[in-house]
Amino acid sequence: MKTFLHERKIDQIMIPTGMTAYLQTLDIPINKPFKDNLCKEINDYIENRMERNQRGNFVKPKLQEVVTWVKNSWEKITDSCITNALRAGYLDKKYSFKDSAIAKHERFGPLILKEMESQEIHQEIQELDCYDDVPEDDDMIVIE
Predict the structure, then answer these.
(1) What is the DSSP string of 88-99?
(2) What is the pLDDT of residues 58-76, one digit of tens each?
(3) Considering only CA atoms, which of 40, 43, 47 is closest in space to residue 73?
(4) Which residue numbers delimit the DDE-1 domain (predicted)?
(5) What's the Cα-to-Cα distance from 100 to each of 4, 57, 77, 88, 91, rounded to whole Å?
(6) Which residue in 31, 16, 35 sits closest to 85, CA to CA?
(7) What average pLDDT does the segment 83-93 reach?
(8) CA 72 to each of CA 51, 133, 135: distance values in angstroms, whole numbers, following the listed order
(9) What is d(CA 98, CA 112) in angstroms, rounded to the nearest whole number?
(10) Closest CA to 101 of 115, 83, 85
(11) Which residues lie across from 58 on neighbouring strands?
């Protein structure tokens, strides 16, 4: 797999143990409940409504049935779940990064915040106009 990715110039990044909740912030508050709800819909179908053909084999559900499962599962995800997940992952830019889950991580939070501060200071220095005191139209002659 590493060779396959390398040949295609795709970087592989390993997520450290215990960091999924911080780096994949939609996984736990949205994806897991959605999948749990979907499993309940499927199990209900299997237990109560699944049909068999003339040979006694199960018939696959109709597309509309599957769409209904997905719709019902998604409707059970509340707006507050989505808001909290977006805020935790700093995907909702209305909130400061300092309020995100990753910024509050015990080990990595301070390191990330320090790096961000360093980058902000560097950017501010780059934007300084250091030559404000030099007049534009002076009588200086430049000899090359």
Answers:
(1) HTT-STTS-GGG
(2) 999 999 999 999 999 999 9
(3) 40
(4) 7-85
(5) 34, 51, 21, 5, 9
(6) 31
(7) 71
(8) 21, 67, 69
(9) 10
(10) 85
(11) 52
Instruction: Count Cβ atoms below 10 Å from residue 22 Cβ, excluding itself.
Output: 19
Residue type at 124 in one-letter notation: E
Strand partners, 52: 58
Residue 40 predicted with pLDDT over 60: yes
Q: Is the pLDDT of residue 22 over 60?
A: yes
Q: Judge whether residue 23 has pLDDT over 60.
A: yes
Which pair of tokens denotes residue 131? 């030559």
How sure is the predictor about 18, in pLDDT bands with cuts at 50, 70 and 90?
confident
Give dist(CA 27, CA 79) in Å, integer. Answer: 16
- For the four alpha carbons of 73, 101, 84 and 13, in that order, the dihedral sign comes to negative
Whose tokens are 């409504």? That residue is: 49
Q: If you count them, how many residues does the chain have?
A: 144
Per the listing, tokens 């909290």 go with 84
- Return d(Cα 27, Cα 33) in angstroms, integer: 9
From first CA to last CA, the distance across the chain in angstroms is 58
